[in-house]
Structure formats: C-alpha cells, structure tokens
Automatic annotation (TrEMBL):
Family the entry assigns: Belongs to the glycosyl hydrolase 53 family.
Top enzyme category: hydrolase
Keywords from the UniProt entry: Glycosidase, Hydrolase
Protein's name according to its UniProt entry: Arabinogalactan endo-beta-1,4-galactanase
Record's catalysed reaction(s): The enzyme specifically hydrolyzes (1->4)-beta-D-galactosidic linkages in type I arabinogalactans
Taxonomy of the source species: Bacteria, Bacillati, Actinomycetota, Actinomycetes, Propionibacteriales
Record InterPro entries: GH, Glyco_hydro_53
Amino acid sequence: MRAISRRVLLGSALTASTIGLAQAPAQAGGGRALSVRGADIGLTLQTEDLGIRLRDLDGRVRPIEQILARRGGTHVRLRVWTNPPAGYSNLASALTLGRRAKRAGLKILLNLHYSDFWADPGKQPTPVAWRGQDLPTLAATIRQYTKDVVAAFAAQRTPVDMVQVGNEITNGMLHPVGELYPTDGRPEQWPAFTTLLKAGAAGALAGAPRGRRPKIMLHIDKGGDNGASRWFFDHMEEYGVPFDLIGQSYYPIWHGSLADLEANLHDLAPRYRKDLVVVETAYPWTRANGDALGNFYPGPEPLPDEATYPATPAGQAAFFERLRKILLGVPRGRGLGFFDWEPGWVPGVPWAPGEAGTPNDNLTMFDFGGRALPVLRAFRRP
C-alpha cells in the first residue's frame, strides 16, 4: 500500500471474459475453509499510544489481535523498516506485536521492506546505511539482515510462518541496484534484482529454527493484471528465484474488478504451480473522511464493482464475502486466503511524521470511533 499514484507497466493478457468467469462465479469450495485469514497490524502500537481503543462486534474493548482471533483470523502481517522515524515499524515494535499475536494464537507473516520507510512500486529506496554498496556486498548485507530478523523472532519463541522478500516489488527493490524499470536509460536490472531476492530468501531460511522452515513469498501489486503478473513471475522462473507463495495486492481503487482478480488467480495458480495469497486488500465502508488528510477513496472514477458493493458497511462486508468465494474457487485449492491492510488504522495516526492523518480511514474494518464493522465476520473459518 502506498500514498502515491500507481504506475501501469503492462496491459492485461487475460481478462475475465477470456475464461468465462464474469458469467460463472466461483463456487464456495464445498465447505473448505481458507487457511489464511489475516490482517496487517503494523500501526497498532502507534494507535494505542494515542489512547485509541478498538471495540469488538460485541461492543467490548479488545486489542486488535484478540479481535481478529475471536472472529476466526489465522495470521497477522508485521512490517519491518530498517531505520524508520521514531515510533514507526522497526524490529522492536514488530517483535512486540509478534509476541502478542502468538499469545492470541495467530501465525506471523513477516513483511521486510528493505527500506528505512515506505517501499512500493513507485519507490524502493535503499536504506541509508546500505547505500553505495556494490551488488555482491549488498546481497551479503540483505542475507545477513534477513537472517538476523528471522532469528530474532525465533529467539523469543515466536517463529515466523511466512516471509516476504520485499514489499510490492513490481518495480524491483533497493534502487538503483535492483531497479527493474529505470528512467535514466539504464537497462532493466533483472540479474541484480533476482540476486538480491535469492539472498533474502537464503537469509530467511538460515535464520529460521530447525524444523520451522518459513514459506517464502514474492509480493507484487498486480491483482487484476494478468499480463503484468505473468511478466514478473516468468522472470522469476527464468532466473531461478526460489519461492513458495505468490502474494498480490488487490485494491479495487487501482487494480480492476473482482472479475479481473478472479481471472488472474485462475491463470497464475496452474501456470506457476504456487499457492496464492491476496496479501493486501481493503474496501471502503463510507465515502466520508475522518481527518484532515485526503483519502485514497473516493477518487476521480467509481470503483469497478461499486454498483454491486457500495461504500457502506453492508457493501464492504459483501465485497469480502465475494473475495472469499473467489479464493476458494482457485484451481487445486491454491487460493490460500487474504490479508486486510491495516483494518484498525482509524483517524488519529498519521502515515508519516508531520502529516495531517491517514488516507486510509474509510477503508478500515472499524468506524471512525473504533467500533467494529460487520466485515469482521469475513475472518470466520467456514
């Protein structure tokens, strides 16, 4: 997720109509449950430090990880920046949230940005302390850093279950060394980029405790774009990058209709023989704004499925019900599940120091006062 404009790299190679999905909705999977029903909770400590408390569907105040677990959630996603501004998602805060998540019975997806602050397709800055390193040195740095972070979770008896090697790495990472689409005339840096990915994956495995191998995820932001998804993962296969999971961001604000998502997932699963996770998603429950900073939604164009899923609490809940069915319908059970992005990021917590608020406050799973919305039922098992 990011507060910048999205960059279109390629047009779609496969549409919903190509495989008939627009007219044939996915079935619910014969009673099978999604094995991943999670949320990104990286801004929880900042929220709590401001005195903000969240209320569960029964009206009781609970920490967000306990609310997720009570509603049937299975995982949390924890972001780690290398040297962020004070009070944001560093390793220490992620370890704290990891302990809380494990006590609640939740598993952990570790989201390594390999940057000091926000990283996404529009910006993948190398941490200041790592700048100027050549490719072999930078690869060694990433391997050791990843090993150390994963080992830190293991040392406190909260081993991670999945590791993202980078965040929304559609345009590479650790620019300029691993940049895929340079604007200065340099060629695409696929060899360097994939060298960095391999180093991160190796570090994740080296830091894990014996018998607790984490699954490696590669995460891009092309949930509704099959052409761009194929372009990226074809290169991953060409360069022999080891990974277990395909992670996709899917926000209807930027990534097309649910039919586009369904078509893409139905193609990717058999093509790469990998399990799939919609690792970032969110949907509006209102058109209103809860603070002084403008929101991602509403934008200049309506959402692709807004007539069916209006920006209301009921419309938001219906959107997630449809998303569940789409994931359950992915061939061979490869649609593992979803992570909602920062469901508790209610007004009051700025996305960066000095900012007026959050651009995400009407995409949450709690209203502006921190009261639970019906969409929380999407975390249930059956």
